[in-house]
Design goal:
The structure holds three protein chains of three kinds.
Chain A (H helix, E strand, L loop, with lengths): L1 H13 L7 H20 L30 H30 L12 H32 L10 E2 L2 E2 L8 H34 L7 H15 L14 H13 L1 H15 L8 H24 L1 H7 L3 H31 L5 H27 L13 H4 L2 H31 L41 E3 L2 E3 L15
Antiparallel strand pairs in A: 1-2, 3-4
Chain B lengths: L7 H37 L4 H26 L7 H35 L1 H8 L18 H21 L1
Chain C lengths: L6 H8 L11 H29 L7 H4 L15 H25 L3 H31 L20 H32 L2 H5 L3 H26 L1
Classes of the chains: A mainly alpha, B mainly alpha, C mainly alpha.
Chain lengths: 488, 165, 228
């Protein structure tokens, strides 16, 4: 998501002909492509793909004989991930330098649309956190193939040490992994936050409430993302006192998140809201972010987490806040910028159906899961029906599965809408269909190579002058008038 | 790059200043390294754990000083725009908690293992006996005893687990 | 922010466009952030080393391990001497790199070429030293997964000492190697007058940044493995 929207929106919204280094972009793309091929090829090796869960904890991942999936499939997994790290590094460097260096005249950092700021912090998070995963994976490769024991402490079979090399620490891998893993959550979420800020402001015809506060909270989230990784590890044998420090740091995230939520709500407050599908998805994002974020405060407490960990409560929490919410952000972005992408509109009626079923479905799927988790149902079980204590959830599980299938079918509807509209959608006839202030709507409907045919427009104000001095909107390219009230 | 457009006199002056700075930093780095080495040599003879720890602390501070001089002057960061400096310093400050939390949990893991893993604890108490090496080819001269210990360690380390069980 | 910043005078101060806010060309900014990223790779390695060392009861004494010297008579032990030579080689090569960058500022092609050659020689010398040390340790029985050395207190040591030593110095050596390759490419480009034609020696500066970073990492590796 960061990849597509960043490459699409950054040059358009900051007023640049292209990314700073198209070559790096291409490299990044091909590294990603190769990584995907390597990953998928592990499906076809004799012992099957890696089977140790997405976190690839040792010893399951470090020992060849741990399971069939720990053989060649695991090596391919590591190589693929390493290539992916390179790809995201190249991409991230490109985004950062483009945003810093390629802005058009007048586009100071504090006049950037929040989308760009969010993409900027996303790139920073990626550039700083992925290398740590890379180190962790290199050590893992050595453990697997060169007889080292970075992550292997000791294993006993019948009182006899079963490993030829030992003395390492399995928790070390988890630390390294989650040092990436937690920022990664925000890498997924931040672009959605940025796009939602932009879309909410445009469609409620009001300036974004607290632009600097939004910036500050983005920055705070970016910093905190690096300080809280061990809250994923409360039950792994982590030092309990250290855990309590992580509880404190984790709960601090609620502050910038709260600032963002209230800013979105106050932007909506008494706005002249246009309920386009994009806007609906943006509001849906805010709703899901609140519901999912609140349970995060529960889970951030080690005392509660020890009870709730690895239950359906956790599944519901992170799927709502990080999975569905960022999907909503992405949908919002697609509906909003589709006219720019293809010069045609998406079908609105299908968009409304898509939104309402997905929103209702998301809650119908994940609310019951919270209940199940509190009642003690663990995740990652192959078959629940063998346990007497979990049988009572069978009905509820069936319900969740049914809703999930309906929601999935609705996404197919969206895909149909998407591809149909590329070719047959209603044509865009005006330059600025959403009456938005940002630069991307000053390009021709079908921008050619280099985005703007003539000069790149100059920027004279921030992007959120909506409903100001009696004007519905004032684009960024409009020079500041004589008797205008305070400008950004 | 902008230097080449400056007026000649200006250019000469800044040139000389830059050269002086390079010289100064080179000397500083060498001095710091020499001090580190002296401390390192001094530490060989010291057995007091507290004093060793203090010396190690000093060495770490000297290391940070060296790093500062390399980044600030050789990599020219000191002369960049302030915002540029901040974009480097702020992410680097993440290392503080990165290091603290990891090392903290590392030592916690040792305590846990020493408490709950009798095998781990036991191993830390077993000294490898210093027996004469069978193939003492590399052992001559004054430090013979030392070398033998290492030769023995090579074979012994591999044998220990087998012996124990 | 929201104060009245009216029209043109402040506009120019704010952001003129078409230049970098840091007065740096984009490639250099990119190099800086790449190095940041790389710093986190090395940081993660060194911190992992620290974590494992903190979670282990004993650790070998580096002065007992790294005490040999090429061509020294058998039995003569000189802890720290060899590695200090390596350190000085790298510092000196870093200085010559600065001089090359400086010469580039002045469009002094001769100076660039001379100092680049010196830097490359320094890099190769460092790599040779490292190769010798690895070879020596290998013949003492140290390698990934095998550690002939005892802990300082005479107990059996875990293999993680050698594991980390070879992994981290290997990773650093790989960086030195790629730095030498980059420097050689830069030298060839200088000799082909590429930079004279472009009118600036920015590429040399970027290579310089990378080379200094390699030196910087060695400062940490050297201290952590050989002194602490």
């Amino acid at each position: 998501m960061s990849g597509t929207f960043a490459n699409f929106l950054i040059p358009l919204q900051i007023g640049a002909r292209d990314m700073a280094s198209p070559f790096m972009n291409m490299l990044s793309y091909w590294f990603f492509f190769i990584a995907s091929i390597v990953m998928l090829s592990s499906l076809f090796v004799e012992t099957g793909p890696f089977s140790g869960g997405w976190t690839a904890y040792p010893p399951l991942s470090a020992l060849h004989d741990a399971s069939p999936g720990s053989k060649t499939g695991m090596d391919l997994w590591i190589i693929s991930m390493a290539l992916f790290v390179v790809s995201s590094l190249l991409g991230g460097l490109n985004y950062i330098t483009t945003i810093l260096n390629m802005r058009t005249k007048g586009m100071s950092m504090t006049r950037l649309p929040l989308t760009i700021w969010a993409l900027f912090f996303t790139a920073v998070l990626g550039v700083l956190s992925f290398p740590v995963l890379l180190s962790g994976l290199i050590l893992l490769i050595f453990d697997r193939n060169f007889g080292t024991s970075f992550y292997l402490s000791d294993i006993y079979v019948n009182g006899v040490g079963a490993l030829s090399n030992e003395g390492g620490s399995a928790i070390l891998y988890q630390h390294l992994f989650w040092f990436l893993g937690h920022p990664e959550v925000y890498i997924i979420l931040l672009p959605a936050m940025g796009m939602v800020s932009e879309i909410i402001s445009v469609n409620s015809r009001k300036p974004i409430f607290g632009y600097m506060a939004m910036l500050g909270s983005l920055f705070a989230i970016a910093i905190l993302a690096f300080l809280v990784w061990a809250h994923h590890m409360f039950v792994t044998g982590l030092n309990p006192f250290l855990g309590s420090v992580f509880v404190l740091l984790t709960l601090l995230i609620a502050i910038p998140s709260g600032i963002k939520v209230f800013n979105w709500l106050t932007t909506l407050w008494r706005g002249n809201i246009r309920f386009t599908p994009g806007m609906l998805f943006a509001i849906g994002f805010v709703s899901l972010f609140i519901s999912g974020g609140l349970t995060g405060i529960w889970l951030g407490n080690a005392a509660l987490d020890i009870y709730l960990h690895d239950s359906y409560f956790v599944v519901a929490h992170f799927h709502i806040v990080m999975g569905v919410a960022s999907m909503f952000g992405m949908f919002a972005g697609v509906y909003h910028w589709f006219p720019k992408m293809y010069g045609r509109y998406l079908n609105n009626s299908l968009g409304y159906i898509h939104f309402w079923i997905t929103l209702a479905g998301a809650y119908l799927i994940f609310w019951p899961m919270h209940y199940q988790g509190l009642a003690g149902m663990p995740r990652r079980y192959f078959d629940f029906s063998i346990w007497e204590s979990f049988k009572q959830f069978a009905e509820l599980n069936r319900f969740i599965s049914t809703v999930a299938m309906i929601v999935f079918a609705t996404q197919i509807l969206f895909l149909i809408n998407f591809f149909y509209s590329i070719f047959k959608g209603r044509k865009v006839t005006v330059l600025n269909p959403w009456e938005s202030n940002t630069l991307e709507w000053t390009t021709p409907i079908n921008p050619g190579h280099g985005n703007w045919p003539g000069e790149i427009p100059e920027v004279h104000r921030w992007p959120y002058d909506y409903g100001k001095d009696g004007h519905d909107f004032i684009t960024q390219t409009t020079p500041v008038g004589e008797d205008e009230s305070g400008t950004h | 790059m902008s230097h080449s457009h400056n007026a000649d006199a200006n250019h000469e002056a800044s040139n000389a200043a830059a050269m002086a700075e390079i010289k100064k930093v080179t000397i500083l780095l060498s001095v710091l390294t020499v001090i580190e080495l002296i401390l390192g040599f001094w530490m060989i003879g010291i057995s007091s754990a507290a004093l060793r720890l203090a010396i190690k602390g000093v060495i770490v501070i000297l290391m940070m000083a060296k790093a500062f001089y390399i980044v600030a002057y050789f990599m020219h960061l000191k002369h960049e725009v302030k915002n540029m400096i901040m974009t480097i310093i702020v992410p680097l400050s993440l290392f503080i908690w990165f290091i603290a939390a990891f090392l903290w949990d590392g030592s916690s893991f040792r305590n846990l293992r020493n408490t709950y893993n009798p095998y781990f604890k036991e191993q830390a108490g077993i000294k490898v006996e210093k027996k004469e090496a069978e193939h003492g080819a590399a052992t001559h001269g004054a430090a013979k005893h030392e070398a033998v210990k290492h030769e023995a360690g090579a074979t012994e380390a591999k044998e220990t687990p087998a012996e124990k069980h | 922010m929201s104060t009245t910043t009216t029209a043109s005078p402040n506009e120019a101060k704010l952001w003129g466009g078409g230049k970098s806010p840091f007065n740096l060309e984009y490639g250099k900014v990119m190099m800086w952030y790449f190095l940041m990223s790389d710093a986190f790779t090395f940081g993660a390695f060194l911190i992992s080393y620290g974590t494992v060392r903190f979670s282990t009861n004993g650790w070998p004494d580096s002065n007992e391990v790294f005490r040999s010297f090429p061509f020294a008579p058998e039995g003569v032990h000189a802890p720290l001497v060899f590695v200090s030579i390596m350190t000085f080689i790298l510092i000196v090569s870093s200085v010559t790199m600065v001089l090359a960058v400086h010469a580039g500022h002045n469009m002094d092609k001769k100076g660039v070429v001379r100092n680049m050659i010196l830097t490359i020689i320094g890099g190769i010398a460092f790599l040779s030293c490292q190769a010798w040390e690895w070879n020596h340790l290998f013949h003492e029985g140290a390698w990934w997964g095998s550690n002939p050395f005892l802990n300082a207190d005479g107990t059996a040591s875990s293999t993680n000492f050698t594991n980390f030593f070879f992994t981290i110095t290997g990773f650093h050596g790989f960086h030195v190697f790629s730095g030498v390759v980059i420097n050689i490419i830069m030298l060839i480009m200088t000799l082909m007058d590429k930079f004279e034609q472009r009118g600036h020696y920015l590429m040399i500066e970027k290579a310089g940044l990378y080379w200094h970073f390699v030196d910087l990492v060695w400062v940490f590796v050297f201290t952590i493995f050989y002194l602490l």
